[in-house]
Design brief:
Blueprint lengths: L2 H6 L3 H9 L7 H6 L1 H5 L3 H4 L3 H25 L2 H18 L3 H23 L5 H6 L2 H46 L3 H4 L2 H58 L8 H31 L7 H23 E8 L9 E3 L4 E7 L11 E6 L5 E4 L3 E3 L10 E12 L12 H5 L2 E2 L1 E9 L2 E8 L3 E4 L5 H14 L15 E2 H16 L5 H12 L9 E2 L1 H5 L10 H21 L9 H8 L6 E6 L7 E8 L5 E5 L5 H6 L2 H7 L1 E4 L10 E2 L3 E2 H5 L29 E4 L17 H10 L2 H9 L6
Parallel strand pairs: 2-11, 14-18, 17-20
Antiparallel strand pairs: 1-3, 3-7, 4-6, 4-9, 5-7, 8-11, 9-10, 12-13, 14-15, 15-16, 18-19
Pfam family, one: STAT_int
GO biological process, one term: negative regulation of developmental process
Keywords: Acetylation, Activator, ADP-ribosylation, Coiled coil, Cytoplasm, DNA-binding, Isopeptide bond, Methylation, Nucleus, Phosphoprotein, SH2 domain, Transcription, Transcription regulation, Ubl conjugation
Length: 743
């Protein structure tokens, strides 16, 4: 079943998450129509290779053309229209930057895998529960409801102001008419009656002026209360959700809803401002003793301007945090002289501001780093799929300045990866006579000068964003706080779901907790120090917990990803636990686990039964990335052979724990089907016998462990067949164990 087919079967709450990251940059119609083709391409590699990205983009356009031809025959007008629009988008937007579409598609596929992994997890962690609480959802609905009510109130006040203007015009006309009469006419009884009517009208004008000012005051008060409480909380919650999403957590939706609220409030405030300007205009034409306009209007206008200033300042946000396109799963880690991207948005979407706001990007003012590349750009509504007022910097590069002595600053691994910096942005909004200076900053970033520093730098990003919602605590690592172990384990599971497509279950997390704590503990409220996580070596080891875990992530990503996604690698299980699991199983049952003593190693252990009925266990020395680069792990499991005493070599691996036939579990991942017997005449180019590598181990009678990797000998099927035909099992054993055996 394709990944897209699995996505379509998700519950509605997960489908809503999928819907959030498909837009006009990569329309869902294309994902649906070209599902299998898209999933068969290596978009992640193309994201770092422009030539490959261009080929994939051209092939994608060809695929769209084929779909367009098909739907044209079916006369599906709507789909024809959409596909033509998509084709135009692909040719126009990405032709000059094909790596950008590769990054987008790669990110979408990765997010799908993360959501599928989250849907398969039976229990939500404490962080995810807090982000999806019913209280937050209720507040979101309340904010939207109140903003809508405020907008309606402002519009109703417009009608009151118009009525007041009409009433004053009538009063002005009648008053001027009386003033134009001769003195004798003014003394008539009719005129006196008219004067009384004018006085009544003036009283009504006074009442209406006070009423309008009162309504304007209420609208301003409601906006003030909403901005000070619920809207501020909603914005802070969105920023917190963004922090969590950056370290692998659930996607952070809701920015479009916030934009709608901010825009409606800005429109309401500008509407109130126009109403106050109209009152000032009415004041110049008519005033009287006790007139409320000259007393109340200045205070109300000052309050409106104050709210507009605050609303604009809060609306300037970093929509997508700084990230190198080469490492999309590691945002906020920036390498010197390598480009990164960052996107900003103004949540107040007014047409008058399109291309009128120029944003300048700088780095924190310690003068150690500068930004190279295009660091001033105009915000516009054309580049974003949803028409938001935004700007994306795509060609910024951090560069380290030389010190006065002519050498670069301290680049020790701990100094660099625990030193936080900030990318700052500033602009100015000039609108309707207001000039507002805006500033915002990215979340803290870590600068590295070598990719070898990336794992520790990413650990710093994880710890910071897990431990605090302060967006600008650059001295955080002077005294880093402890983290709740239960929350840390949840974030570690996110590393696996976001980076390698499958999170960790409770048993796997329990093993990690024991490894961190060194004993069986209840970790719900346990506080873990930064040093324990990333700086102190594990007991008896030469590496830290995080370095060990990061090496496993790298191993999965590069060498055993399909097996991990299928859920066939138990991975995190101790030697003691694996023997408890295997002891009552059928001989030949095995499981796969990550090495605790070797960085980036995976091994398998199987259970066997001796002639006297005793159970014995065998574990092969771990396979690392060097050996897995030469031979796929699924092929190793298929072809692995063991020579025990005088027996013929055989594969001891029969059932994947608990009882899955090995070929059923891994068959689809075998690179090819091996030939049991291959003769020279069977084929091979230029008369050569085709060969494959077969890992072989030898187990002596008094040993339960296979030999080291140097004794896991690869041999071709033809060599093995000849050995069986001409040599006894004892001779085969002697030949295999000989150090000079030709292979």
């Amino acid at each position: 079943m394709s990944q897209w087919s699995q996505v379509q079967q998700l519950e509605i709450k997960f489908l809503e998450q999928v819907d959030q990251f498909y837009d006009d940059n990569f329309p869902m119609e294309i994902r649906h129509l070209l599902a299998q083709w898209i999933e068969s391409q290596d978009w992640e590699a193309a994201a770092n290779n422009e030539a490959m990205a261009m080929i994939l983009l051209q092939n994608l356009i060809i695929q769209v053309d084929e779909q367009l031809e098909r739907v044209s025959q079916e006369k599906n007008l709507l789909l024809i229209h959409n596909l033509k629009r998509v084709r135009k988008l692909l040719q126009g937007k990405y032709h000059g930057n094909p790596m950008h579409i590769a990054v987008i598609i790669s990110n979408c596929l990765r997010e799908e895998r993360r959501i599928l992994a989250a849907a398969s997890m039976p229990v939500q962690g404490p962080l995810e529960k807090s982000l999806q609480s019913s209280v937050v959802s209720e507040r979101q609905r309340n904010v939207e409801h109140k903003v809508s009510a405020i907008k309606n109130s402002a519009q109703m006040t417009d009608q009151d102001v118009k009525y007041l203007e009409d009433l004053q015009e009538e009063f002005d006309f009648r008053y001027k008419t009386i003033q134009s009469l001769e003195q004798n006419d003014k003394n008539s009884a009719l005129i006196k009656q008219e004067m009384l009517a004018l006085q009544a009208m003036l009283n009504t004008l006074d009442y209406k002026r006070k009423e309008v000012l009162s309504k304007i005051g209420r609208v301003i008060h409601e906006i003030d209360v909403l901005m000070s409480n619920m809207l501020t909380e909603e914005l802070l919650d969105w920023k917190r959700r963004q922090q969590i999403a950056c370290i692998g957590g659930p996607l952070h939706g809701g920015l479009d809803q916030l934009q709608n609220c901010f825009t409606l409030l800005a429109e309401s405030l500008f509407q109130v401002r126009r109403q106050l300007e109209k009152l000032d205009e009415l004041l110049t034409r008519l005033t009287y003793d006790g007139d409320p306009i000259p007393v109340q209007r200045p205070q109300l206008l000052e309050k409106v301007n104050f709210l507009l200033y605050n609303l604009f300042r809060n609306s300037f946000v970093v929509e997508r945090q700084p990230c190198m396109p080469t490492h999309p799963q590691r945002p906020m880690v920036l390498k010197t002289l390598i480009q990164f991207t960052v996107k900003l948005r103004l949540l107040i979407k007014l047409p008058e501001l399109n291309y009128q706001i120029r944003v300048k990007a700088t780095i924190d003012n310690n003068r150690r780093f500068v930004l190279c590349g295009t660091h001033v750009k105009a915000m516009n509504m054309d580049e974003s799929a949803n028409g938001s007022l935004s700007v994306e910097f795509r060609h910024l590069q951090p560069k380290e300045m030389k010190t006065s002595a002519g050498s670069k600053g301290n680049e020790g691994p701990h100094m660099v990866t625990e030193e936080l910096h900030s990318i700052s942005f500033e602009t100015q909004v000039c609108l309707y006579g207001l000039t507002i200076n805006l500033e915002t900053s990215s979340l803290p970033v870590v600068m590295i000068s070598n990719v070898s520093q990336l794992p520790n730098a990413w650990a710093s990003i994880i710890w910071y964003n897990l431990s605090t919602n302060d967006p600008q605590n650059l001295s955080f690592f002077n005294n880093p706080p402890a983290a709740t172990l239960s929350q840390l384990l949840e974030v570690l599971s996110w590393q696996f779901s976001s980076y390698v497509g499958r999170g960790l279950n409770s048993e796997q997390l329990n093993m990690l907790a024991e490894k961190l704590m060194g004993q069986q503990v209840s970790y719900n409220d346990y506080q873990l120090s930064w040093a324990k996580f990333c700086k102190e070596h594990l007991p008896g080891k030469s590496f830290t917990f995080w370095v060990w875990l990061e090496a496993i992530l790298d191993l999965i990503k590069k060498h055993i990803l399909p097996l991990w996604i299928d859920g066939y690698i138990m991975g995190f299980v101790s030697k003691e636990k694996e023997r408890i699991l295997l002891k009552d199983k059928t001989p030949g049952t095995f499981l796969l686990r990550f090495s605790e003593s070797n960085l980036g190693g995976i091994t398998f252990t199987w259970v066997d039964q001796l002639e006297n009925g005793d159970v014995t266990f065998h574990s092969v020395e771990p396979y690392n990335k060097g050996r897995l680069s030469a031979l796929p792990f699924a092929d190793i499991l298929r072809d692995y052979k063991v020579i025990m005493a005088d027996n013929v070599p055989e594969n001891p691996l029969k059932y994947l724990y608990p009882d899955i036939p090995k070929d059923k579990a891994f068959g689809k991942h075998y690179s090819c089907q091996p030939n049991e017997v291959s003769k020279p005449s069977d084929g091979g180019g230029k008369g050569y016998v085709p060969s494959v590598f077969i890992p072989v181990s030898k187990i002596l009678n008094d040993s339960t462990e296979p030999h080291s990797p140097s004794d896991l000998l690869p041999m071709s099927p033809s060599v093995y067949a000849v050995l069986r035909e001409h040599l006894s099992p004892t001779a085969i054993e002697t030949a295999v164990s000989c150090k000079n055996f030709p292979i």
